[in-house]
Amino acid sequence: MSTAAHNPLTRVVKRSLDIFRVLAITGLIAWPLLALFMSIGHHSEEETWGVDIGVFSGFFIDLTAFTADVTDSPGVRDPMISGKAVLNIDTSSPRALYLFTAILEVGGIAGLYVLIQLRALFTSLLGGISFAPENSGRIRKIGFVVIAWAVINPILQYIGGRAILAEYSLNIPGIQLIPAFDVNGMAIFIGVAMIVLAGVLKEAARMHEVQTLTI
User: Could you tell me which residues come within 8 angstroms of residue 48 by beta carbon, excluding any fewer than 6 positions away?
Assistant: First the structure.
């Protein structure tokens, strides 16, 4: 039996993954039902959902709109401030709520798939099976999911942010909000690294099998 099977941390991680899997499935089922319940009970356009919808947005702030003397202030060279941030918006738009729910569901499904693969991997380790083609295949699948999510998530954020900001009026002179797009390069790198690691583990599993048959 492998060393990983005797390591207490392996069992702790396995149990933690069991809990996370249950929580993820519960959230995937409960959140759409909650969103549907809120939309059915929503009658007035003046009301809000009471739920902060996260929008990845770019912002521009023109300081001259607030005071004409800002350029004369010490340390101020450019009166225009810009950047990107996640803005929590409590809106009354049903479309915003549905888009927010859909984005969460897609992310939740991707996360659940990763949890299932990790759980299967640690179950195999607890069973004393370390060098197996199945384990390298699971790591490879996780790598592809990480890369896919790193590419798809910014697109969903941009589409959702554009739709939500179009229905959200911010009547403040000098402040402009626009949907932002930002690809997580580190996540793509991690996904590629996991695919490479899976290839190495697959070769190690093959060599282990040859050695076992030779003995």
Answer: 90, 91, 92
Three-class secondary structure of residue 141 per DSSP: helix
| Burial zone of 31 (CB within 10 Å; 0-12 exposed, 13-18 middle, 19+ buried) | middle
pTM assigned to the model:
0.78
Residue 61 CB partners (closer than 8 Å, separation 6+)? 80, 81, 82, 174, 175, 176
Look at residue 174 and give its three-state secondary structure. Answer: coil
Q: With both helix axes pointing from N to C terminus, report the angle between 133-166 and 94-126 in degrees, rounded to the nearest 10.
A: 170
Q: Give the residue numbers spanning the domain of 8.
A: 3-214
Which letter, b or e, does each residue of 152-174 get, where b requires 16 or more Cβ atoms within 10 Å of its Cβ? ebbebbbebbbbbbeebeeeeee
- The predicted-structure confidence for 125-178, as pLDDT tens digits, reads as follows 888 777 778 888 999 999 999 999 999 988 888 888 887 777 776 667 777 888
Domain count, the chain: 1
